[in-house]
Amino acid sequence: MCATCGCSSDQHHEHGDHHHHHNDQRTIIDVERDILHQNNLLAERNRGYFDAKNILCLNLVSSPGSGKTSLLEKTLTDLKRELDFVVIEGDQQTTNDADRIHATGTKVTQINTGKGCHLDSHMIFHALQGLKPKENSVLFIENVGNLVCPAMFDLGEKERVVIMSVTEGDDKPLKYPDMFHTSTLCIINKTDLLPYVPFDINKAKENAKKVNHKLEIIEVSCTSGEGLNQWYEWLKSKVPVPEMAE
Amino acid sequence: MHELSIVMSIIEIADGEAVKANASKIDEIELEVGLLSGIEMSAFDFAWQEAVRSTVLENAERIIVRPSGKAVCLECNTTFDMDHLYAPCPACKSHFIEITQGKELRVKSLTVA
Predict the structure, then answer these.
(1) Do B62 and B41 contact (CB within 8 A), yes or no?
(2) In chain B, where are the structural domains located?
(3) A110 at interface of B, judged by CB pairs closer than 8 A
């Protein structure tokens, strides 16, 4: 039982939307509740917190090894004079990624999911209590490296960024369509390796667009720096401008 | 294996409803799991078997309704059945489509004794 958010099994206590049919000894209860209801409620609560504090929250998802942490390190280092960053790292085990982020001078907290394969809004809710991100900051949540499970769990983010790299297959969006379907931006990383791998970048983009026609795509290389400016421009364009009180 | 989290959420919902109805066990649970919801049924069944032990759902009969995938084309307005997320419009081959059915993931009803 979580004392703060009441996310225990006994918190569904409203009666108004129920129709009870008594038939012999059996009662049918019309529940009609989304199975992810609890996660979605807490995600909205997180989202409200971000809105109130004018925080831009991004959820970074990908398979393991596509370069999420490298992209973050690069971004945090290059933009730390312009933007205030905070990071939540999600991994099954170790604080290795958090240590790498910490080395850039950024405030970071690590969530170890143990056996868990994804972050959920409840974990983020509690991570925020410890992290206390400043107003007008940019919060990156680096999800567990997994292209399947995190797709179903809204964390309260403004944008979901899926990262794939050219060392993976160009059919990845078709193999893992849920993740590409729910993301708003796709970053194709490690483009400096294109001459050495059979990855067809146009095909990859075409496949991604097949799954999600609204998906924006940016090609980058964290090693050579190519394309990073486009990502930085995209990021800065998403930072909410605080409304001035008249 | 997000199916385990999904099953745990179902147990949580069922448990809450059982408490409200003063029921100690649930006879039947009706679920709606769309074909495009991203749930792998074999993983779901496995997670279910393990997770419902010693809960109100332990002996519940499970009825699963599986709405098929449907989409509407934003270019030519054709409504069509889709069995995967990257299916194009069969009429004009466009990928500018909006899914209208198949992503359901819901506890529909419970029967308690």
Answers:
(1) no
(2) 2-112
(3) no
- What's the token pair of residue B47? 């997670």
Q: How far apart are CA B78 and CA A156, in angstroms?
A: 33
The residue among A82, A182, A221, A218 whose CA lies nearest residue A138 is A82
Measured between CB atoms, does A245 come within 8 Å of chain B? no
Interface of B with A in 63-102 (CB under 8 A): 84-86, 88, 95-97
pLDDT value at residue A12: 40
Residues 115-134 of A with CB under 8 A from B: 116-118, 120
Instruction: Inspect the interface and report whether the beta carbons of A33 and B15 lie closer than 8 Å.
Output: no
Interchain contact A153–B (C-beta under 8 A): yes
- What pTM was estimated for this model as a whole? 0.86
Chains A and B: how many Cβ contacts under 8 Å?
Answer: 105
d(CA A32, CA A37): 11
In a domain, A119, yes or no: yes
What does the pLDDT profile of chain A (246 residues) look like in tens digits? 455 555 544 444 344 444 444 456 788 999 999 999 999 999 999 999 999 999 999 999 999 999 999 999 999 999 999 999 999 999 999 999 999 999 999 999 999 998 888 999 999 999 999 999 999 999 999 999 999 999 999 999 999 999 999 999 999 999 999 999 999 999 999 999 999 999 999 999 999 999 999 999 999 999 999 999 999 999 999 998 766 655
Look up residue B32 and give its two tokens.
Answer: 């709606």
- Report DSSP state, residue A149: G
Which CATH topology does B2-112 take? hypothetical protein PF0899 fold (3.30.2320)
CATH code at position A162: 3.40.50.300
